[in-house]
Description:
Layout: E1 2-5, E2 11-14, H1 17-22, H2 26-30, H3 40-55, E3 61-68, E4 74-83, E5 89-95, H4 97-160, H5 166-195, E6 202-206, H6 207-217, H7 219-225, E7 237-241, H8 245-255
Antiparallel strand pairs: 1-2, 1-5, 3-4, 4-5, 6-7
Helix pairs in contact: 4-5, 6-8
Amino acid sequence: MLCIANADSYFTRLSPAFTRTLGWSLEELMSRPFLDFVHPDDRAMTLLEVERQIGRGEPVLEFQNRYQHKNGSWRLLSWKSSPHPDGRMYAIARDVTDREQAQQALRRSHEELEHRVQERTAELQQRNRDLETLLYVSSHDLREPLRSISNFSQLVRDRYGDRLDAKGLDYIDRVVRAAQRMDQLMEDLLTLSRAQRLEMPYEDVPGEEVVKAALTQLDETIRRTGARVQVAANFPWFRVNKRGSRKRCTTSLRTR
């Protein structure tokens, strides 16, 4: 939209694009001061912005304001104008209403998305805390009956071992070892629940070292079962927690 305005705040020339954009005829637009078409909340701001830019000696003045459409709605216009020494103002206006509405809708979508992400994050954090609590309580409570199984099995072996044959003693030993392994798993679960809440330092551990430690703990089982174990070369390094890292890695490999 192209226009020329005089010092009395009236349009003197207008391109037909004004009628297409605002609905008013050119005669209607030129019969009233142009500020009459500007939204009341934008009038003072428009004048202040123009005066501020003129005071800085800006050759081209840029500002935005809302113009009333003939149907009563408001269209946001983006202006670029240049003052002439004779007091007239030459200006170009673009209707940016749709662009501004799209940007506002995009901002609202971003805000809503961020809000949903925050809600979802808080919900997941709460679920994680609940899961950690359940994990801790379950692991702690399950260890007590495991200790009873292990202790009473050991008592049976110590007090009545002379009445059992080799197979019976083996069964008792299997129960004790299984209970000990389960107890270790419960301990690892407790460690895991604590690790979720703590920032711990990490270190790199060579895979061969972890495998060797696991095989050492499995040595009795390997001999008893006659198993043959082949260990691959060039294991990768594992990034693990420093506090008892080799023990946890070994336990993980052993339980698998």
